[in-house]
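Lecture 7 notes. Example A: sequence first, then its structure tokens.
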Amino acid sequence: MNLRVRLLEGNSVQCFKVVGEIDAFTAPKLRESLAPAEKLKDMQAELDLSEVEYVDSTGLGVFVGFYKAVKANGGHVKITGANQRLKRLFEITGLSEVMDIEMGEGGDEDAVL
């Protein structure tokens, strides 16, 4: 599946709209799309995952790397639009304790990992 990443800049927040599945094949594209922003000082980033249905461990690694780089430069990363399945994945891995994650509208209560 293809992955699309659009940068929507608004005020002082850079919002990345991510669409598709994030796996070993698409994670490099995501990493490449986020790389320029992670070097900015005091950057406020928002990753909109409302149109992402699947993330594997490679994708999680990209999120962790981006989070660490932005935080090291005094910035903040917020993940928005996570469905029930993604929210559960962030909880299982402990990332929900570290990252700012906001659920999307209407969850998939029946979603199973």
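Example B, a different protein, same format:
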Amino acid sequence: MSLPLLPPFRQRLASGQPLLGTFVKSPGAHGIEVLGEVGLDFVVIDAEHAPWDRGAVDLALLAARAHALPALVRVENSAGILSALDSGATGVLVPHVSHPDTARAVVAACRYRPGQRGFSNSPRAGRYGGLGLAAHLDASDTATTVVAMLEDAEALDHAEALAAVEGIDAFFLGRGDLTVALGETSTEAETVRRAVALLVAAVRAAGKPLCAFVGKTSEIPALQALGVTAFILSSDQGLLRHAASTELAQFKALPA
């Protein structure tokens, strides 16, 4: 298999080029392999809302590397950052980053210099000791992609300061959680629209990329108009459900 030679994911994200990925919610390596064959720009292993343990994440990251498929890990909380990066994750998607102090703590957990990431070059990220101390520090700090999720009402009060935190590579608009936090039941509610506009303005003013979730590709143009460039389309389970439902409907429509 010939793998494409592409710039590092962090560089591609920063450039603002359109990127398409999906959440992976089913633990295991096979789904990652399939998505790697398809040619998505990235995947996000969802360790926040799906039953991933550390061993399963490690195996999935191995499969992603075999297909040169950038793989972020949505950690349950900041405590999961170190194990994800040591296992070779391209980066992390960190939920509920609602205050600048939280954002700075996330950056510190992801970076060696300057930062507070615990050092070890013995896991996959350090090529099992193949990278020396300095080389591992340089490689990790250069490649690790840090994406913070804006999904709390509190983030609205700190939007500009949050967006300006150095070391956060991109921000994810968590419209679902934000909708719930604002007491609404639709992401299209006017209160949610105003909140999203405020967050978008702050992030764009800081010159940072924006990411968002979409249930289907038809939702992408409206978000592109806001300045979103990286999209997480559904999930492996959602795509499976859609494909199966579509084929089943077509089957039932066949003549008896």
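Note on Example B: The chain has one domain: 9-252. Residues 9-252 form a domain with the TIM Barrel fold (CATH 3.20.20.60).
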